[in-house]
Amino acid sequence: MFFIYRRIIEAKDNLIRDFQVELKAKDEQYVKALRQGVSDLDVLVQEKCAHNAHRQTLLFEQELQGIEARFEAERTELVDGCRFRVRV
What is the pTM of this model? Predict the structure, then answer.
């Protein structure tokens, strides 16, 4: 009778060990997946930041071109006004 109980206990101990090994493997997979997720998120954030910086640069360039065009128009107007006064 003792032999049967001993085999049952050994079988349960073996199952417990198997479950612990499986649990450890799953924990490692989970940690690896989390790290990959963090890495993927970092890449996405960097790409988004680069895209936003590029877009903002283009907007600043357009704004600068507008300012320069208005400056040149105002300058031309002032120079033409000065020339007219010099002739009169």
Answer: 0.59
